[in-house]
Design goal:
globular; 13 helices; 6-stranded parallel β-sheet; alpha/beta; 7-stranded mixed β-sheet; 385 residues; 2 domains; Rossmann fold; 15 strands
């Protein structure tokens, strides 16, 4: 079995964000980091200097055995401890409520921790407040949208790993109909849906993709309903960009295949799950902590945070299950190497469902275009709702 063990967000934003920001506004806020981050004073553009040796703490918004986003961060911490040779303190179940995050961070700082890593988009404003109050402490936040001289938000390019999972789906389907259970119709979800089909068409140009949006990041009931609806539409592979393994469980119950998200989902559906998009935050965070310790970390050079490629430890895949044909597994490996070498998933021409050109031939979208992706490509059946 070919296994790539490298490690998604519970994703940027939680359910309450749906009520506060439109899809476009979320995309722009994340892409540009302006609304939520503010401008960084150019006088503070020198590298951050840490007082003493790094003492790291991580603050998780949910329990560390949630099976998804937070567990991926927790497992990254374990690998980081081994690589860095240090103990990393952690606190779980600190919700995306500013006062509770601030209280937790203050306690850790009083105990001497000088590198604080948040746990979700919803920690963004509170961690910005803390970074301004404690300019000698380094702050990092996965899925964070706030930045500063001692603060970096970061997220991975999940369209890359979902593109690779899509190749697996295209090679597994017998009906030429694959499905996808998606959370919210935001750019960072839409790009995974679109990339999944683009990957599938690398090995099966006739395949189509049915998508159902649940309107929630984490709702097993809605995810089950969506996955079962896809099964009833005749799909035989289910992909996902939601938090729980429910779509994989439904796939196994129905004797079809699936691809997971956040972590290797084979522990929940060992027969169905043949590939998973996984987070590998340690591959980004360990070098970052080394840079902080060395005095070379300079968030001011990246005023809108880090948007991490597969080559730098954003997402990767756990692959391949024993039902994936050998030639498809080889294609996944070769395309993964192409991504490592700089290939862009969304090189044009890219057309939307209505036949409008969205990316011209030979061109690639900018990061702002990716975050603001408000369309589904040709071959996707379903609507942004």
């Amino acid at each position: 079995m070919y296994v790539i063990q490298f490690i998604s967000i519970v994703l940027i934003g939680r359910d309450f964000m749906i009520k506060k920001l439109s899809t476009f506004a979320i995309g722009i806020a994340i892409a540009l980091g302006i609304t939520m981050s503010g401008k960084i004073d150019q006088a503070s553009a020198s590298a951050f200097k840490l007082d003493g040796e790094p003492k790291v703490a991580m603050i998780y918004f949910s329990e560390v055995n949630d099976g998804g986003w937070t567990q991926a961060l927790y497992e990254a911490r374990e690998r980081m401890e081994a690589e860095l040779g240090m103990e990393i303190t952690w606190v779980e179940k600190v919700p995306e409520v500013a006062s509770q995050f601030i209280n937790a961070a203050e306690r850790l700082i009083r105990r001497g921790h000088n590198v604080i890593i948040g746990g979700a988009f919803g920690h963004s404003d509170a961690i910005k407040t803390m970074s301004e109050k404690h300019p000698n402490v380094a702050f990092l936040n996965p899925a964070g949208t706030t930045n500063g001289p001692n603060l970096n938000g970061f997220y991975g390019r999940t369209y890359e790993s979902q593109y690779l999972c899509g190749i697996a789906a295209g090679g597994l389907t017998k009906t030429n109909k694959i499905g996808f259970v998606a959370a919210n119709p935001f750019g960072l979800v839409n790009w995974t849906v679109n990339a999944y089909l683009l990957g599938a068409r690398q090995v099966n140009p006739d395949v189509t993709l049915n998508v159902v949006y649940t309107g929630s990041w984490n709702d097993p009931v809605k995810e089950r309903s969506a996955a079962q609806a896809l099964v009833e539409q005749g799909i035989d592979v289910i992909g996902q960009h939601v938090d729980t393994p429910t779509p994989q469980v439904v796939a196994q119950e129905n004797g079809i295949f699936g691809t997971g998200h956040h972590r290797d989902m084979r522990e929940f559906a060992d027969q169905a799950t043949q590939c998973s998009s996984i987070w590998v935050w340690d591959r980004y965070l360990a070098p970052t902590i080394k840079s902080i310790a060395a005095g070379t970390w300079n968030p001011s050079e990246r005023p809108y945070g880090d948007f991490v490629h597969i080559s730098s430890g954003g997402t990767d895949i756990s692959c391949c299950g024993d039902k994936i044909p050998a030639d498809v597994a080889a294609k996944i490996e070769s395309e993964r190497q192409a991504l490592l070498n700089g290939k862009h998933v969304f090189e044009g021409p890219i057309y939307d469902q209505e036949g409008n050109i969205r990316v011209k031939a030979g061109e690639t979208p900018g990061d702002g275009d990716l975050w603001g992706m408000d369309y589904l490509i040709q071959g996707v059946i379903g609507q942004l709702n």
